[in-house]
Amino acid sequence: MSTHTIQAGDTLSVIASSYSLALNDLLAANPGIDPQDLQIGQAINLPGSSGATKPGSQGGSSGDGDYVKYSGPASNFPSPDQWASYAYLWPANERLMKLHDSDTEIGHIKTAIETVAAESGVDVRAILCIIVQESGGDVRVGSTNNGVHNPGLMQSHNGVSFDANDPQGSILQMVKDGTEGTKDGDGLKQLLARYGNYYEAFRAYNSGSVNAADLNDPMGATGSYARDAANRLMGHEWSGM
Description:
The chain is mainly alpha-helical. It contains nine helices and four strands, in the order βααβαααββαααα. α7 (188-195) crosses α8.
């Protein structure tokens, strides 16, 4: 991660603007910093400036539209090059997070998504949309347990939950658990490698099994899971999303 050295007249808003960063992201990259007590010569972190590639962070469509009832195999679902851009999807989903989370927590989520996408090779848009699908982006979401303990932002396989004593670290770990897997179960990265496409990976993430001919076959879980994910990734909006 690159740094900026505080100079006379600097504020976090000025620094964020000069590097084309969101202020929340800059705050999230510098936990414990006092914005009112910046010292000349002090070094602060610049998020997302390491040069690491974030899959899915460039390109994409303009989003918008109504819910589409995709069905059948993965080939009937929109390909990643048809998905809405990350620039469109982030603010569209951020507004849902604001129902639960503070601005600082939302900044931590965004930084975690982009960090883990660069580490794992999983599309940044897929991570974002599965977070919203699983938890609404609520860092304090409860766990489910239908034979497997599923905690956290991505309802991972026996991973971690939010820790108020370490918000940034626990948010990062929740995103890692869901994307990169845990010692007890696969994440999106492993499932994508196994199935070769995002929609079968989503189906497996939700139910553990896949009927490749019909991705709306619930296999004991949520029938519309892959279809809902596709609509989120296209930037579609619907009641109850």
